Amino acid sequence: MKKLLGILLLSTTISFADLVDAVALVVNDEPITLYDIDKRMVDSNLTKKQAVGALIDEILYNQLIKEKNITVDALDVNNYMEKLAASNGMDLYTFKSVVKQKYRNYDAYEAQIKKRIEREKLIGKLVRGNLKIATEDDLKIYYNNNKPQFSMAKEIKVVQYVSKDKKALIETMKNPIATSDGVSRTELTLKQKDLNSQMRYLLNGTKINRFTPIFTANNQYVTLLISKKIGVDIVPFEEVKNKIFTVVMQQREQNFLKEYFEKLKLTANIKVVR
Fold first, then answer.
1. 11-41 b/e with 16+ CB inside 10 Å = b?
2. pTM attached to this predicted model
3. Coil, strand, or helix at residue 129?
4. Cα–Cα distances in Å, from 185 out to 22, 90, 169, 194, 206?
5. DSSP string of 193-257?
6. 131: domain range?
7. 12, 41: one domain
8. Is residue 144 part of a domain?
9. Per-residue model confidence (pLDDT) at position 41
10. What single DSSP character describes residue 147?
11. Which of 70, 71, 43, 69 is nearest to 55 (CA)?
């Protein structure tokens, strides 16, 4: 009887495993299992229909990347980050140091950059000659309709926390009201026009009542708690024209890519198994 029960339990386990790994759909000969769908639903908080759609898009995207022979190497990443650095008024070394302060996982940030470059290369191959290039009038229309995107506070009130002990500074950030040995606290008012590009990048990217990433200055660890942003300065059109061109063209590329994939789905060999 015990032997029979063991066999029954074993076959139940095998059947459950078979069900989990069961193929639900096949997209151009590439399978999507029930497990893939359930995992995507949980990980991304999607409905079953949304999860299936996302997985199909992902497979078609990866198949297209392979078909177009698109690769991304370290030189691509370096060149892309040089452009990002220049657009924020920094050299590459300074920009990388700021990014490492802002993002805890620098490798994950680089992985995102690689994905972005890969996508841009794909878009470049697909849309070449198919997109209307944005004119200066297009850029001015976008600028006038989205001025809050190009505004920054004239002054920023902060509380500066400084320490030679990084751990003590981290503990203070968890409870800024409490006093901590070895951590000095100073209230400051900073004017945007007096800030260097790195500091402007950190402060404008940090919300009120939030800390900036920890950075180093004068051989000490520093973080700033943003308490208030005062006044509004609109960045002149000429200073942001290149950024707007990139944004407008990216929007057009994304719309093109969305339509392209909708058409691709219609021609793809998608079989529903269960």
1. eeeeeeeeeeeeebbebeeeebbbebbeebb
2. 0.58
3. coil
4. 59, 28, 11, 21, 19
5. GGS-HHHHHHHHTS-TT-BPPPEEETTEEEEEEEEEEES-EEPPHHHHHHHHHHHHHHHHHHHHH
6. 74-138+238-264
7. yes
8. no
9. 93
10. G
11. 43
